[in-house]
Amino acid sequence: MIYRINEIFQTIQGEGVFTGSPSIFVRLQGCPVGCPWCDTQHTWDIDPAQQVSVERMLSKSTASAEWAELSAQAIVDCFQQQGYSAKHVVITGGEPAMVDWRPLAELLEARGYQLQIETSGTFALQVSAQTWVTLSPKLDMPGGYLVRADCMARANEIKHPVAMQKHIDALDALLAQYPPAANVVISLQPISQRPRATELAMQVCIERNWRLSVQLHKYLHIE
Ligand SMILES: C[S@@+](CC[C@H](N)C(=O)[O-])C[C@H]1O[C@@H](n2cnc3c(N)ncnc32)[C@H](O)[C@@H]1O
Ligand SMILES: Nc1nc2[nH]cc(C(=O)O)c2c(=O)[nH]1
Ligand code: SF4
Ligand SMILES: [Mg+2]
């Protein structure tokens, strides 16, 4: 399995249940969903002209549309070469569920790593049984993709980006259609740190006993 990778870096997980956990991020290039407020729009297109060497991809200092091809083994080797110490690996993108992560999971889990995937839930998941699935539902997005029933059933965590009441209403409709198990953590993530979005998310989280996810890395100005 060859993966088209936009970036690999070690940082602190800034979102969801694992907020605060030292983590290695593996970001896949490519996403067709088209959320207008997406904070990683440079990962949307897979432009052949933007393919670079693994070394160049690893040495990026700012976000760019450049990507490199790596095998599962090359990703593991890269963790070693970079001297990363984190044992939690976050697979994100782009939309990571467009490819099969089981070859990478097999190698990493044998070495004691735990995997988490951040996904829109619009593609069938190809992950190991142990992978923690963070589903960030995408409702009414320009690409016209729908959140899948099998993704809702597999999610360990549902983390919904919100700015307006209509986003809460859309989440309510989704949860009514696919009621999650009692142990699934539901959180609201304010879009782009907007004060009114944060106010709304806090208020609804308190009313519903949901969690607030604030993209800690953006407040800390880290990757
Ligand atoms: C960039 S996406 C990549 C993974 C996958 N495509 C997805 O949407 O879950 C990672 C997370 O960032 C969230 N996100 C993207 N842009 C955001 C923004 N401007 N404000 C808050 N959350 C955002 C997404 O909803 C998702 O939970
Ligand atoms: N620190 C940090 N935490 C994150 N959690 C989810 C991220 C993502 O882009 O998927 C992300 C990210 O880009 N940085
Ligand atoms: S699905 Fe994820 S990566 Fe794709 S546009 Fe939406 S937030 Fe961005
Ligand atoms: Mg991000």
From TrEMBL:
GO MF annotations, alphabetized: 4 iron, 4 sulfur cluster binding; carbon-nitrogen lyase activity; magnesium ion binding; S-adenosyl-L-methionine binding
Read off the Gene3D superfamilies from this record: Aldolase class I (3.20.20.70)
Q: Which residues bind [4Fe-4S] cluster?
A: C31, C35, C38
Residues annotated as binding Mg(2+) are: T40
GO BP, one example? Answer: tRNA queuosine(34) biosynthetic process
List cofactor names only.
Answer: Mg(2+); S-adenosyl-L-methionine; [4Fe-4S] cluster
- What's the protein called, per UniProt? 7-carboxy-7-deazaguanine synthase
Organism source for this protein?
Answer: Idiomarina xiamenensis 10-D-4
